[in-house]
Amino acid sequence: MRECISIHVGQAGVQMGNACWELYCLEHNIQPNGTMPSDKALGGGDDSFNTFFSETGAGKHVPRAVFVDLEPAVIDGVRTGIYRQLFHPEQLISGKEDAANNYARGHYTVGKEIIDLVLERIRKLLTPSLARGTENQE
């Protein structure tokens, strides 16, 4: 099985990512809280959405995605939006202030404060995907 991990960075990336996940949910009949109607889950047979979503033990589908922005407003919009229950809170990462359109400030100061957290979250998404790669392939 193929698995995709999405990384959405910055205001434009987060806004496009949020719209993209909304579209994925609509296409695969996944509710804004990550659940599927029981009639679709039982008789569906189409599990192509598993390329983009992980399924929890409770049957909730969570996007394999990380959203990152130095400025918290756009990420807060995802946290409070209609699809707020879809995303795992640890996958929505925001700083305390933006880089004010200054690359050096974003790279060397403000961004440096959250880069370790971002890399750790990506590693957590990536590790189970790599571990499954050792299973029998069809």
From TrEMBL:
<dbReference type="Pfam" id="PF00091">
    <property type="entry name" value="Tubulin"/>
</dbReference>
<dbReference type="GO" id="GO:0005874">
    <property type="term" value="C:microtubule"/>
</dbReference>
<feature type="domain" description="Tubulin/FtsZ GTPase">
    <location>
        <begin position="49"/>
        <end position="138"/>
    </location>
</feature>
<dbReference type="InterPro" id="IPR003008">
    <property type="entry name" value="Tubulin_FtsZ_GTPase"/>
</dbReference>
<dbReference type="GO" id="GO:0005200">
    <property type="term" value="F:structural constituent of cytoskeleton"/>
</dbReference>
<keyword id="KW-0547">Nucleotide-binding</keyword>
<keyword id="KW-0493">Microtubule</keyword>
<comment type="similarity">
    <text>Belongs to the tubulin family.</text>
</comment>
<dbReference type="InterPro" id="IPR002452">
    <property type="entry name" value="Alpha_tubulin"/>
</dbReference>
<dbReference type="GO" id="GO:0016787">
    <property type="term" value="F:hydrolase activity"/>
</dbReference>
<keyword id="KW-0963">Cytoplasm</keyword>
<keyword id="KW-0378">Hydrolase</keyword>
<dbReference type="GO" id="GO:0005525">
    <property type="term" value="F:GTP binding"/>
</dbReference>
<dbReference type="InterPro" id="IPR000217">
    <property type="entry name" value="Tubulin"/>
</dbReference>
<keyword id="KW-0342">GTP-binding</keyword>
<dbReference type="GO" id="GO:0007017">
    <property type="term" value="P:microtubule-based process"/>
</dbReference>
<keyword id="KW-0206">Cytoskeleton</keyword>
<dbReference type="InterPro" id="IPR036525">
    <property type="entry name" value="Tubulin/FtsZ_GTPase_sf"/>
</dbReference>
<protein>
    <submittedName>
        <fullName>Tubulin alpha-8 chain</fullName>
    </submittedName>
</protein>
